[in-house]
Amino acid sequence: MEIEEREVSGFNVKRVTINNLILGIATEIGPRILYLAGDENPDFNLFGVLPEFGVQTSEGLMRIYGGHRLWSSPEQMPRSYSRDDNPVKVKVNGESITVYGNPENENSIQKKITLRPFSDNGIQVIHIIQNIGRWPIQLSCWALSLMRQSGFAIIPLKPSKADKEGLLPDRHISLWPYTNISDKRIKFTEDYIFVIQDPKLKNPIKIGTMANPSWIAYWVNGMMFVKVFSCEDSEYTDFGCNVEVYTNADMLELETLGPLKLLNPSKCIQHTEIWKVFKVGKLTPDIYDIRQKLLKNEMDKLY
Questions:
Q1: pTM, entire model
Q2: Does residue 203 form part of some domain?
């Protein structure tokens, strides 16, 4: 595994190439992955980096920074917004590389992210949270990827009968209080929900659901980023969501969640994503465009 010392938007990173993906792992904050590109366009960072953007909490200003991060769900203040602005340990073990976050003593947890090759292209991103406290805590792994502007997210939401006769509901949508369901950035189609990132629209929106099948994607400037994950028959937070999308004028966050678990002292929970990046060219948030240009060519390679 080749590792180079580089800089991304003022942050020192370890630049790593795994299969066809180029990654920049932050060393002074985190655990964070601040750079993601495919080898077809290695200088195009799919992630957004926002050094100055932050949220004021009772513990001080928590900077979002951007890139990919691991949080715990359900979202709570200040627990979810614990500052991660100290240096982290990055360790290579054979073909894998692990980023160790600092202990969050107030939350009784410690986070780490492991990256390793998946098949002949793409990578496996393993998110782990350990209970370092003295009593059980209930939470789930929450993996958030902050994407660069001017693209759109794709959430698959195909029908799946809950009963033989089709009398029971089989899909649901979760909405956050600040979300206007008539917002033009949200587009519902037969099998997909599209969420468009528009730098001109400041008002935030957020939508969540139980993806079917279990993947979520983001298109920008001809490149496609896909996160594939497993869904368990278990309880999920936010009224049963395993994917969520948040956007405002500055960014779009592509989020997946693991199931809610009761975590005993010293035990860990784990949530794994498979990342793929490939070039698809021009694409529009339209179901027919997705079927013709994406599904026939690339999506069958994800599993």
A1: 0.95
A2: yes
Domain that holds residue 68: 8-301
44: Cα within 13 Å, side-chain hemisphere: 17
| Number of domains making up the chain | 1
Q: With contact defined as beta carbons under 8 Å apart, do 151 and 139 qualify?
A: no
Helix, strand, coil proportions of the chain in percent (round to 5)? 5, 50, 45
In this structure, is residue 1 part of a structural domain?
no
Q: Which residues pair with 47 in a beta bridge?
A: 147
Residue found by looking up tokens 């976050």 in the block = 101
Cβ neighbours for 260, distance < 8 A, ≥ 6 positions apart: 73, 74, 138, 139, 140, 234, 235, 236, 237
Q: What is the pLDDT of residues 251-283, one digit of tens each?
A: 999 999 999 999 999 999 999 999 999 999 999
Angle, CA of 73, 77 and 82, to the nearest 5° = 80
- ∠ CA 274-303-31 to the nearest 5 degrees? 5
The number of beta carbons lying within 10 Å of the beta carbon of residue 58 is 7
Q: Is the pLDDT assigned to residue 78 strictly greater than 90?
A: no
Phi/psi for 81 (5° steps) reads: -105, 30
Domain-located, residue 2: no
Q: CA 266 → CA 48, 84, 110, 133, distances in Å?
A: 34, 21, 10, 7
| Dist. CA 201–CA 195, nearest whole Å | 13
CA distances for 30 relative to 7, 25, 62, 173, angstroms: 15, 9, 12, 31
